Amino acid sequence: MYTLNDFFCGCGGLGLGFQNAGFKIVGAWDFDKYAVATYRENVGDHVVQADIQKMCIEDVPKADVWAFGFPCQDLSVAGKQAGIKLECADCGTVWEVSAETYSEENLCPGCGGTNHRAATRSGMFFEIMRLLAEAREREPEKVPKVLVAENVKALRKLLPVLEAEYGKAGYKCHAQLFNSKYWGVPQNRERYIVVGTLDSLPDTYTYPEEQHDYVPKLSTILEADVDDKFYIADEKAHKIIDQALQRISSMGKVHATITPDRVDNLKLEINDDTGEAAPSHGPVAASSLIQQRRLIIAALEYAVDKGRINRNPGKKTRRPKSKPKTNNILTDEDMETLGIKGTKYRYYPAYMLTLTTACRRGEILGLDWQHVDIGIPWTTVDRYFPWGDIKKLPKWDTKALKTLLEDHNITLGDGYLRLVYQMVDDNGTPFRDELKTDLSRRSLMITEEMVLLLIFWRLIQNIEKKKAAERGIEYNPDNLVFCTRKGTYIYPRNFTKMWSENLRSMGIDHKRFHDLRHTVATVMLEDGEAMNTVQEQLGHYDAGFTASRYGHVTAKMRNSAAVKLGERLEKVRNPEAEDEENANSVKKEDTVIPFQEGRKLKSAACKIK
Asked: How far is residue 557 from each of residues 5, 233, 419, measured CA to CA in Å?
């Protein structure tokens, strides 16, 4: 009996086919917990929820065949078509892999390095290639005889890349496009099957032929009698239709009363219980009014297009004036207090990570461990780190931790974090969602000091996870960097509330959590960082937006430059005065300002005392 490893197994579609063909599945992995649960129910208990980026060859059993339907979202016409992109783990450069630009060395265009990782989900193909390389280097007996990749029709333009990678790994490549309708399935679904056979095997592989004589229809497999529970009851359906008709009718009755003045005065708020808009009885921010006005005008324009009203009264309304936002930043004294007194609070590492990277609240709370790179896989950290000795160290004592790790021949440097997800507040409920733009999905450097803090935090989570397991509770299934003591999502509002309470306890004047981000931006600009660098650090869509937001800083810098130019001109005109000044000058000792040393960025990293 042949054996199979099923990567990106999903709910078991590919694995089930192999199983029906007589293969024994010895390993199966997927990132999604619901897919894993479905797989376990329908295929077998051998499935494991895991992130392939954290796996090493030691986690993979020996098998004759490796099958991997690697993620297709970035290739499919139904997705964003972001393509296969890689990110350099050394310099953070992101580049797209294409047949035109591909080279077997696969060097980073930024630094020329070979230490890369997937920057898009479809880039996970290269994680399979990494595991193959590890197998050849460390456990040759685990090198499979056959590789079977599956993906969408759009993979065609990248087939030369797959063929080159297969060849580099020691496999002959065979690729063919199949349509499910010619294989007894009532669905027009085209997929590439890319098979690789070891060079040492005879080159005799051929694909089976499609059966074009019979194309099934959906009607041939649908059940004639279906239980009523699978349908919406007539009474409920009629109620939904009646409610929709009532809303449409109400639009026709009230449109004549809509005037520009009334639109101007209309202030709406959303009812959390019903989800419907209603007049607001409290003060509404100008930015909210601007958004509401835009929504009202769009709705009325739709009514004009449908012939329900003759003109759009919203277009003649006055646009509310919004006050320019002011940025309230932390002082050097505030940052020193936070670095010292903040150590007694649970989310101290989250505060410091924000103060050193300028991440948004949602980005911090949505961050998972797989996107934090310290040069060592976190699976290795959990498995081999001297946790027993770390427990004995004073909490957050990074100097002692560094010394301990060096005694164990563990060397750490600067790390990187990749921002992919954010935690959003959905009517009071935390919801983890992908960041929407390429600019917001960015890589940021974190200092060695911050890496050490995160290792301390990892220890805390490991202890909490062990306690949860003893009680039979699932802890942190999404592998978040920051979670509650129970391993659940942190409510963004609760996090902000704790931040405010912690500041008050430390004796720091009120600052929004978002002000940590403004602090980093201000420090970067004052230290001479270019505006586009600050823009990239913050994840703003446009450098002009960054400049407008921090105009007060640039104005201060311009004034300072004007003063310096004036002083230089004065010295040119009066060289005697300069000589006299030099003669009377007294050398002053350098002063050390807390947090000042680490302010020069790539990472906006502050030195934590």
From this structure: 60, 68, 31
- Listed by start position, the domains of the chain span 3-84+120-220, 257-323, 342-511
What's the pLDDT score for residue 421?
92
The domain 3-84+120-220 is placed in CATH, from the list 3.40.50.700, 3.40.50.150, 3.90.550.10, 3.30.70.120, at 3.40.50.150
Q: Which two tokens stand for residue 231?
A: 């349908």
Residue type, 276: E
The sign of the CA dihedral 490, 491, 496, 500 is: negative
Main-chain phi, psi angles of 376, to 5 degrees: -130, 130
> Pairing relation of β-strands 421-426 and 85-88?
unpaired
* Non-local CB neighbours of 17 within 8 Å, separated by 6+ positions: none
**What's the pLDDT band for 581 if we cut at 50, 70, 90?**
low
The per-residue pLDDT for range 152-180, each reduced to its tens digit, is: 988 988 999 999 999 999 999 999 999 99
Q: Where are the alpha helices (DSSP H) in 527-584?
A: 531-538, 543-549, 551-573, 575-584
Its pTM stands at 0.47
- pLDDT, tens digit, for every residue of 519-531? 988 888 888 888 8
The strand ranges marked E within 131-188 are: 146-152, 171-179
Strand order in the sheet with 85-88: 94-96, 85-88, 116-118
- Provide the 10 A C-beta neighbour count for residue 204: 6
**What per-residue confidence (pLDDT) applies to 419?**
93
Sign of the torsion formed by the C-alpha atoms of 115, 118, 124 and 125: negative
Scored b (16 or more CB within 10 A) or e, 172-193 reads ebbbeebbebbeeeeeeeebbb
What's the CA gap between 287 and 143, in Å, rounded? 59
3-state secondary structure (DSSP) of residue 88? strand
